[in-house]
Amino acid sequence: MRHQRKTVKLQRKSAHRKSMLSNQVCSLITHRRIKTTLAKAKATGPIAEKMITLGKRGTIHARRQAAAFLKQKTAVKTLFEDIAPASADRSGGYTRITKLGPRMSDSAPMAFLEWVDYGPVVETDELAEATPAEAEEET
């Protein structure tokens, strides 16, 4: 029986899985939204929520615990200074999973994993397209 076996293995060895989930959370912190498979999103979500809980504590010990898992100083700094304060009044449910449908190549179910409280995601392509048009109008 599978009682008390909570870890989703994702067909990887433990070291690879821990490294992959750490990188997924760092990408989520950096980019505010990531596109990944549904299984990886479901595995990454609870870990990201634990990192927010550490960020809300704000102690040195919590910062060191987050740094030990994330292994990227810039991600830890962004987590503690930007993302955790934005979720200060929320008591849980910091992430959202939005299903996207199957991937074209292998029909794997895809999903967006994003922060609930951080606000809308601004695409960099839209900003790049808007800037040259404004420059032509000024000349």
What distance lies between the first and last C-alpha atoms, to the nearest angstrom? 72 Å
Structural class: alpha+beta
Mean pLDDT, rounded to whole units? Answer: 89
What is the beta-strand fraction? 5-15%
Question: Looking at the structure, what is the overall shape?
Answer: globular
Rg over alpha carbons:
18 Å
What is the helix/strand order?
HEHHHEEH
The biggest sheet, with number of strands, parallel, antiparallel or mixed sense and barrel status, is:
3 strands, antiparallel
**Spatial arrangement of strands, main beta sheet:** 1-3-2
Contiguous uncertain segments of 5+ residues: none
Please count the beta strands (DSSP E, at least 2 residues each): 3
Helix content: 55-70%
Q: What's the number of helices?
A: 5
Description:
The protein is α+β, with helices and mostly antiparallel strands. 56% of the residues lie in helices and 14% in strands. It is built from five helices and three strands; from the N terminus they run H-E-H-H-H-E-E-H. The chain has helices at 14-31, 38-57, 60-70, 73-86, 124-138; strands spanning 33-37, 95-102, 109-115. It has a three-stranded antiparallel β-sheet. Strand 2 and strand 3 (109-115) form a beta hairpin. Helix 1 crosses helix 2 (38-57), helix 1 crosses helix 4 and helix 2 (38-57) crosses helix 4. The longest helix is centred in the middle third of the chain and has 20 residues, at 38-57. It is globular and about 40 Å long.
